[in-house]
Amino acid sequence: MKSFIAKQYACPVEYTLTLIGGKWKPVILWHLANDGIKRYGEIKKLLIGITHKMLSQQLKELEADGLIHREEYHQIPPKVEYSLTDKGKTLIPILQLMCQWGQENMEHI
Question: Where does the chain cross the membrane (predicted)?
Fold first, then answer.
């Protein structure tokens, strides 16, 4: 897990956005929250426009921050599954509110 001791945050929102900010992290977390365990390829198909490099980076960061769990199965072909950790599950109400806000305001675009 990343060490945030050296970094001082002005407020808790800044810390939260450090962990889940950006274009892809909230969407990855949303799909894992709604669909449960997903394999890498399944996540990639859900995120139209994301590159392999970006998805790999985002998954590694979410895992390092303790928000998702990566389960690797040593078999042929290799199998890796991603799921929310207990800490990651605490973000579900926030993601649900973001979804609700988006549904209410998307039609105005």
Answer: none
